[in-house]
């Protein structure tokens, strides 16, 4: 049985509202039409209707998300022992999140998941795993229903343990982050080596990270675990496309199993989920010096996914009842039954 939160939670995702990057100018114009602002007003972000709330979310995020904080969140959530529910239960549970950036508050939040998935389905009809990723990409937001503050759930993500990029939104709000006072975290590379790979980087905590952990556990089976006190243990997939921050996975054994085969097939999807909110990287090219060749090879897929995520809110509302059986089949194929959260 899925748990039922006591009440709805108002959620405002600043990643969907404030996009300063030039490549999203068309998307910004769509957002303007929803806020009754002109193009000039929107680009002068100080007068946007959501300024204060978006800025506050990022200020809290940038002040509180430190290396220590993120490791504590991983330890709390990634043991995946809080509750159990199916993927479709989780999709519909998104309806308990009230999107404050959307003027039509009667529109179920799960519709965005189906919109994203359906746009991907049209563009990539032969990639059913990609369709499923579109449906699943925001499921980590259910953390907000169990008390997580918004700065731990939504918004752009960024690396910790090294110098914060000036292209992170509202970079001035990092001034009170305790990690800025730690010398080894203040240089370009920080605690990392050049081209070490994003899988070796500690990212800020949000719904992307939660999505990764509960999906990876389903795809790789019960051997998926996070070792307390050893957060950064890693396993490398044979494809070398993605590394999951787990330990104890026997990839040779997984390769021989049906579940393992599916897991390998969907590695690129997990990568998209993990980094789709990492805008400083996939929009501005920041932190390329930490990326390895696998990261750069996957960048095109992150960009491809992101355009469906952002632009899908302007699409017609899909007939959810009509398309649900298709996605239930995909769920049965790739991640059946109840998942641990």
UniProtKB/TrEMBL annotation:
Residues noted as binding Fe cation in the record, renumbered to the chain: 112, 137-138, 207, 276, 309
Enzyme Commission number: 1.13.99.1
Compartment annotation: Cytoplasm
Cofactor(s) for this UniProt protein: Fe cation
Free-text cofactor note: Binds 2 iron ions per subunit.
Entry keyword set: Cytoplasm, Iron, Metal-binding, Oxidoreductase
UniProt cross-references to InterPro entries, sorted A to Z: Inositol_oxygenase
Pathway: Polyol metabolism; myo-inositol degradation into D-glucuronate; D-glucuronate from myo-inositol: step 1/1
Stated family: Belongs to the myo-inositol oxygenase family.
Name of the protein: Inositol oxygenase
Taxonomic classification: Eukaryota, Metazoa, Cnidaria, Anthozoa, Hexacorallia
């Amino acid at each position: 049985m899925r748990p039922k939160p006591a009440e709805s939670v108002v959620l405002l995702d600043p990643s969907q509202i404030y996009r300063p990057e030039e490549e999203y100018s068309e998307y910004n114009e769509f957002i303007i039409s929803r806020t009754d602002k002109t193009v000039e007003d929107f680009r002068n972000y100080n007068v946007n209707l959501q300024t204060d709330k978006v800025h506050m979310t990022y200020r809290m995020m940038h002040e509180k998300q430190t290396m220590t904080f993120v490791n504590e969140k991983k330890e709390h959530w990634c043991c995946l022992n809080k509750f159990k529910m199916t993927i479709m239960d989780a999709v519909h549970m998104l309806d308990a999140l009230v999107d404050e950036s959307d003027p039509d508050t009667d529109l179920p939040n799960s519709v965005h998941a189906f919109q994203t998935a359906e746009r991907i389905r049209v563009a990539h009809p032969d990639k059913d795993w990609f369709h499923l990723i579109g449906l699943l990409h925001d499921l980590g937001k259910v953390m907000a229903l169990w008390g997580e503050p918004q700065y731990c759930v939504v918004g752009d993500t960024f690396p910790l343990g090294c110098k914060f990029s000036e292209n992170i939104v509202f970079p001035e709000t990092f001034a009170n982050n305790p990690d800025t006072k730690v010398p080894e975290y203040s240089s370009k590379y920080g605690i990392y080596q050049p081209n070490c790979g994003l899988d070796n980087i500690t990212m800020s905590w949000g719904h992307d990270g939660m999505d990764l952990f509960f999906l990876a556990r389903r795809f790789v089976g019960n051997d998926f675990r996070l070792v307390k006190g050893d957060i950064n243990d890693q396993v490398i997939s044979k494809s070398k496309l993605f590394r999951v921050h787990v330990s104890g996975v026997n990839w040779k054994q997984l390769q021989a199993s049906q579940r393992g085969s599916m897991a390998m097939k969907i590695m690129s999807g997990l990568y998209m989920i993990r980094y789709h909110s990492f805008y400083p990287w996939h929009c501005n090219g920041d932190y390329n010096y930490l990326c390895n060749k696998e990261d750069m090879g996957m960048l095109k897929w992150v960009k491809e996914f992101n355009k469906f995520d952002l632009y899908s809110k302007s699409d017609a509302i899909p007939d959810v009842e009509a398309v649900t059986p298709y996605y239930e089949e995909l769920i049965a194929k790739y991640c059946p039954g109840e998942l641990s959260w």
